[in-house]
Design brief:
CATH architecture of the largest domain in chain B: 3-Layer(aba) Sandwich
Number of helices of chain A: 13
Distance between the termini of chain A: 18 Å
Number of domains of chain A: 2
Oligomer: heterodimer
Strand content of chain A: under 5%
CATH topology of the largest domain in chain B: Rossmann fold
Number of helices of chain B: 11
Shape of chain A: globular
Strand content of chain B: 15-25%
Structural class of chain A: mainly alpha
Number of domains of chain B: 2
Low-confidence stretches of chain B: none
Radius of gyration of chain B: 21 Å
Number of strands of chain B: 12
Largest interface: A-B, 21 and 32 residues
Chain lengths: 316, 324
């Protein structure tokens, strides 16, 4: 019974967050300049324009327009396009590419940042440490699209190591899929690598001062074992939380990266929808993004519980 | 008895923005096999640094000079890997705070078996059964259940017993116990000290008990070394020290222990003043500014370590005389 109430409160919280996010977006998109009715039919008469606006709920207040979209969601269409058609099939076809992009990016970032962060903490103040943080931060201070364009032009087009742009589904051609994903993933990962390395470095430095590390050391076990068996785990909760929260940034970053590398993902669709003022579609995309953000965060929360027993039994 | 540990002109300093901080200033100390030695002094006297530096556990910001011979090997000449091979099996250490000296995210079992598998090369099963024996030996009820627990689920006294079990797991010859009971309740303190004394006897282990409490030293050591401002100021067999202490500092330390036979409401005795600045080297006796017996000579000239015929050593021009 208690468990059920727990789950229900969690779910209702999720629903509330989703509704808040999409409602905010519904207000924002209506602030976009330009007359949607004229966009759809540039030669429409005043009466025709009113009719189009009515159809889109633009003559209603924010609340009732939002309810219009909500009812489309509940019908299972995930909204409709002004130019005709349902949003759901578009989402279904766009989501795998975006999720893959983000998922690969997280994995690559963690695989690089974990050893780098642990080692630069262990070698704190040495040339290795300084070189690592300087090079990471000069890379990370570069805008994403800049790195993306350079990689696409130099590595993709000029050197021809991997194709500069495009997307192939994983089921179609495995190696080609990863070759195509390499550059966009690398581009997206630069920022998180720098952040994760920095965070982990700071945490590891703090953990290295703990008595239990001294006790482990006094057992006579190797530095490598101390770092990866005794230090990494208690130092990783901040990193995990940050990885979960960076989902939001990654989705935003993916939007631009998808356009540069011609990946038919949610970012490409979202950009298109904003350009054509597809109000309902924009809200649906945002809702989907928020859902994945929330799922990812709650998965990480339970992961943190598994990794660090100190966080258990602390019902928030 | 033969020497187990021998320190010669052993010094430890840290470089700080205010200049070099001298935590240990030229210590000569010999510890015999099987002996139990107490190192006493107030916070900042250098006793913890001395024991950690002897093992080689200091961070890289510390500079050590002089020699530390362990079983005849000069530890200061060893490479990091060679030095590490002595840790756990040759020398081990128990730390002050059992709440922070166990890894909070690893189960007791894995922390206890680690030394056994990594250092002694035991198989998993063998290490597990040895770990159960060890927990049983340090009087942990339900060793099998405790193995699966995290440190956060255990009390301070239990955790300190586990820290002891970890320290003795690879049967070290020399055990440093750095304020092993300071963070514990008084009743638990006595139990833990009793346990350490028993283990020392049955394993013929040499122990260095570092503490600020002369009361702890009294029943559990053969010999006491009193430290002040990074130096040894008095050393004597425990019984002799309590019967016939020479240093005003030692006397002051003893007087600062609260006593039950004093009338209630009486103010606790304290040693007024502070330890001298460890970044400076002043002429004269380091304790002179706080010493009630100090004369101009004490302030001008540093007293050498004097050895009495019975081996009692002290660093004072005007040692306390007569039994008290």
């Amino acid at each position: 019974m208690k468990k059920l109430i727990n789950i229900l409160t969690r779910l209702s919280r999720v629903a509330l967050i989703l509704m808040g996010a999409t409602f905010l977006v519904s207000i924002l998109v209506r602030q976009l300049p330009g007359d949607v009715a004229l966009l759809i039919n540039p030669v429409a008469s005043a009466a025709e324009r009113d009719a189009i606006r009515h159809e889109l709920g633009l003559d209603r207040n924010y609340f009732s327009a939002y309810l219009m979209w909500l009812s489309q969601i509940l019908r299972g269409d995930f909204g409709i396009f002004i130019f005709g058609g349902k949003v759901f099939p578009v989402i279904k076809s766009a989501i795998p590419a975006t999720l893959q992009l983000i998922f690969y990016t997280q994995i690559l970032a963690l695989v690089i940042a974990i050893p780098l962060g642990v080692l630069s903490a262990f070698k704190q103040g040495t040339r290795f440490d300084k070189l690592t943080s300087t090079s990471l931060f000069s890379l990370a201070s570069f805008p994403n699209f800049g790195i993306g364009l350079i990689l696409a032009v130099v590595v993709g087009a000029n050197l021809g190591i991997v194709p500069p742009s495009g997307y192939i589904r994983i089921t179609e051609d495995l190696s080609q899929h990863f070759k195509l994903m390499l550059l966009p993933v690398l581009t997206l990962a630069v920022g998180p690598i720098a952040t994760y390395t920095r965070l982990l470095r700071a945490e590891v430095i703090a953990t290295l001062r703990e008595d239990y590390v001294l006790l482990a050391k006094s057992k006579g076990i190797s530095d490598k074992r101390i770092l990866f068996r005794h230090v990494l785990r208690p130092s990783s909760t901040t990193l995990m939380t940050s990885a979960a929260l960076s989902m939001g940034n990654l989705i935003g970053g993916a939007l631009i990266i998808e356009i540069i590398f011609v990946i038919p993902g949610l970012g490409t669709q979202l950009a298109k929808a904003i350009g054509t003022r597809e109000f309902f579609a924009i809200q649906s995309y945002v809702a989907i993004i928020a859902v994945f953000f929330l799922i990812f965060n709650s998965v990480v929360d339970s992961l943190i519980n598994a990794v660090d027993p100190r966080t258990r039994n602390r019902r928030a | 008895m033969t020497d187990l540990l021998k320190l010669e002109d052993f010094r430890v300093s840290f470089s700080t923005p205010r200049g070099d901080l001298h935590a240990v200033r030229s210590v000569d100390l010999t510890i015999l096999k099987g002996e139990s030695v107490g190192i006493v002094g107030e916070s900042g006297s250098g006793k913890t640094v001395l024991s950690r530096a002897t093992m080689g556990l200091m961070p890289s910001t510390a500079t050590q000079t002089g020699s530390a011979f362990f079983n005849g090997t000069d530890l200061s000449t060893l490479s990091r890997d060679d030095l590490r091979s002595h840790w756990g099996t040759g020398m081990a250490m128990i730390f002050q705070d059992p709440l922070t000296s166990l890894n909070p995210v690893r189960r007791i079992g894995s922390q206890l078996t680690e030394g056994l598998t990594v250092r002694l090369g035991m198989g998993r099963e063998q290490a597990r059964s040895r770990a159960v024996e060890l927990l049983d030996r340090v009087r942990i009820p339900d060793p099998l259940v405790t193995m699966k627990k995290y440190p956060g689920e255990l009390s301070g006294g239990m955790r300190q017993r586990i820290v002891i079990a970890i320290a003795i797991a690879c049967t070290p010859e020399l055990l440093f116990a750095d304020e092993p009971t300071t963070a514990l309740d008084v009743t638990v303190q006595a139990q833990v000290l009793e346990l350490l004394t028993e283990l020392r006897a049955e394993r013929n282990m040499t122990m260095v008990l570092v503490t600020h409490d002369l009361g702890v030293v009294a029943g559990h050591t053969d010999r006491v070394v009193v430290m002040y401002a990074g130096q040894i100021v008095e050393t004597a067999p425990t019984k002799d020290l309590f019967r016939n202490m020479k240093m005003p500092y030692t006397e002051a330390l003893l007087k600062s222990i609260p006593r039950l036979d004093q009338p209630s409401g009486q103010r606790l005795q304290v040693i007024s003043g502070r330890l001298p600045d460890p970044t400076k080297t002043e002429p004269g006796c380091a304790f002179a500014p706080r010493c009630t017996y100090a004369t101009d000579k004490c302030r001008a000239e540093a007293p050498p370590l004097t050895t009495a015929p019975n081996g009692h050593q002290y660093r004072c021009f005007f040692p306390i005389t007569g039994a008290n």
